Amino acid sequence: MVDVIWADRYGREQGYVGKVAGDFTIGTDNTFALKVGSSPGIAQDCYLMIDGSEYGGIVDGVEIDTSKDYITLSGRTWHGLLATQLIVPDPGQLHHTVSGDLNAVLGALVERLGLSSRMAAESRPSGLSVAGWKFSRASAEMDAYTGIRAMLRSAGAKLRIRYDAGLRRAVLSAVPRGDYTSDGLDGERVDFVLRRTRPVNHLHCLGEGEGLDRVVVDLYADEQGNVSKRQTIFGEAHREEAFESSSAGEAELEEDGAKRLREMQAEMSTCGLSGADDGRYDIDDIVGGTSVEHGQSVVTYVAQKIATVTSRAITYQTKTAMEV
Question: Could you give the number of structural domains in the chain?
Answer without folding.
Answer: 4
